Amino acid sequence: MAIDDHVDLEGFMNGVKARNPGQPEFVQAVQEVAEDVFDYISDKEAYHEYQILRRIAEPDRVVSFRVCWEDDNGNTRVQRGWRVQNNNSIGPYKGGLRFHRDVTESVLKFLAFEQTFKNSLTGLPMGGAKGGANFNPKGKSDHEVMRFCQSFMTELYRHVGEDIDVPAGDIGVGAREIGYMFGQYKRITNKFVGVLTGKGLEFGGSLIRTEATGYGAIYFLQRMLQRKDESIEGKRCVISGSGNVATHAAEKVIHLGGTVLTLSDSGGYIYDEDGISPEKLAWVKEHKTLRRGRISDYADEFKGSKFYPGERPWSVPCDLAAPCATQNELDENDARALVANGCIGVAEGANMPTTLDGVHVFKDAKLLYAPGKAANAGGVAVSGLEMSQNSARISWSEDELQNLLVEIMNNIHDRCVEYGRTEDDTYIDYVKGANIAGFVKVADAMLAYGVV
Ligand code: NDP
Fold first, then answer.
1. Theoretical Cys-Cys bridge with 170: which of 96, 244, 341, 434, CB 3.0 to 4.6 Å?
2. What is the chain's percent helix, strand, coil content, to nearest 5?
3. Minimum-distance ligand 1 atom for the alpha carbon of 383
């Protein structure tokens, strides 16, 4: 019998907390998974004997490194970069890079852990990783961002590769940053290979990669609603964020006949009671990406809308909600407000945007609630398809990729249903479904490898 065998959930979590001091986000992510997985493995001896959950919750490795760069005034600046390679049991490590002031090892460990389950759910051969730096791209010139990205890749290149670890974008890392990093990798290694995804179409990128996370989250929401003979058409939707995921989620809601009432950023949210039209959304995309502007400017641009500084949009009455900004942006009170206002479905475009207490409110109210690791898997799924296209040196058409994305999201949904049915079959617990379905594939591969 293994040393830690058959400890209860509390004992297991006490161990996780003790081994990861000062890492609340990571502990929170492990707790959310352990709550479901413990129950599932209670009668499965091999998972205990080989300490599978304990091993998935211990990253294969965490690399941290110094990133020096020069700003436009000639000052030397020093940042910290990381790559957390959580688990490569089912394929090369895969997961985004985040450049944000608040990035810490805890945040990246939680994201890499979540990514392991998400990538497993896609059905594609990808392990879980995440990386980034405590670099704030806001207010930096293109040249400063370029110098930072080059310096970052000058260290990262040792740890990644098309069959080892394939990073992508995340908060603060879009097409511009991926281009600079890919260029530097190619320059150092003299190899043109698919080492990053989210690349420009001219150099190996895939069609619909940019749209895939936001679109995928709404396809998942649509599938949940269809099971209840409902649809997005005619529904009012509240969305947070105004970056890649939020704007593409909004685009898909509008496309499917819904009305988008809000968008936000770290400064506050805008409420447009007339609904955000495709033209207004096009303005937001351009404003946020090309002009790197703030969402507050929307209220000056479009009469009838209002900006709420320092607030989050969850008190706005709606039928559907899609948190698409960042972790822990929707707490217990926000969840209660959504339920009280009649919201029937929530799909998370962001990673872990709802706190654990908030999740419990949604589950208790039997809301259709799709956790990020299932609902936002469309992005990494199309990244997986980008890897396949790069390996085969081909490009698939937009139609082919759209069909594959819908198929993958529907499959993820159906696997969540398979593992997430409550015993009385009255409710689908999508969190439990995603956790267990994601766990099983990784766990079984680990069992096959023995103790490594
Ligand atoms: P972007 O950088 O394009 O946009 C992020 C958005 O979130 C911005 O509007 C930003 O506002 C807002 N935001 C960031 N931090 C905070 C904060 N602390 N409080 C409130 N708002 C905040 O990132 P993405 O759209 O790519 O990512 C959004 C979420 O989706 C993240 O959780 C990411 O991990 C997740 N995700 C992304 C995928 C992708 O393919 N891009 C794939 C799967 C998940 P501001 O401009 O003020 O910072």
1. 96
2. 50, 15, 35
3. 40
pLDDT category at 4 given cuts 50, 70, 90 is: low
Q: Determine how many CB atoms are found less than 10 A away from the CB of residue 202.
A: 7
Q: What is the 3-state secondary structure (H, E, C) of 39-107?
A: HHHCCCHHHHHCCHHHHHCCCCEEEEEEEEEECCCCCEEEEEEEEEEEECCCCCEEEEEEECCCCCHHH
Among residues 318, 319, 316, 314, which one has the least CA distance to residue 355? 314
Q: How far is CA 215 from the centre of its chain?
A: 13
DSSP-H helix ranges across 393-429? 398-420
Q: Is 379 in the pocket of ligand 1 (CB under 6 A)?
A: yes
Q: How many residues does the chain have?
A: 452
Protein residue whose Cα sits closest to atom 35 of ligand 1 = 350
Structure tokens at 100: 């944000």
Closest residue by CA, ligand 1 atom 44: 350
Centroid of ligand 1 to alpha carbon of 244 (angstroms): 7
Give the Å distance between the CA of 243 and the centre of ligand 1.
Answer: 6
Q: Indicate the pLDDT class of residue 410, thresholds 50, 70 and 90.
A: very high
Structure tokens at 204: 């190996």
Report, as an integer, the average pLDDT of 350-378: 97
Query: What is the sign of the dihedral through the CA atoms of 37, 39, 43 and 45?
Result: positive
- Whether 262 is in the pocket of ligand 1, judged by its Cβ within 6 Å, is no
- DSSP state letter for 202: G
Residue nearest (by alpha carbon) to ligand 1 atom 46 = 265
Strands 305-309 and 268-272: antiparallel
pLDDT digits (tens, 9 = 90+) for 248-276: 999 999 999 999 999 999 999 999 999 99
At 1 the pLDDT is 41
Average pLDDT over residues 135-140: 94
> pTM, whole model, 2 decimals?
0.94
Q: Is the CB of 171 under 6 A from ligand 1?
A: yes
Q: Which two tokens stand for residue 129?
A: 């990783």
pLDDT of residue 425: 84
Cβ of 197 below 6 Å from ligand 1: no
Which atom of ligand 1 is closest in space to residue 312's alpha carbon? 20
Is the beta carbon of 88 within 6 A of some atom in ligand 1?
A: no
- The pLDDT value given to residue 291: 87
Tokens of 127: 């392990």
Nearest residue (by CA) to ligand 1, atom 27, is: 171
Q: Annotated catalytic sites, by residue?
A: 130
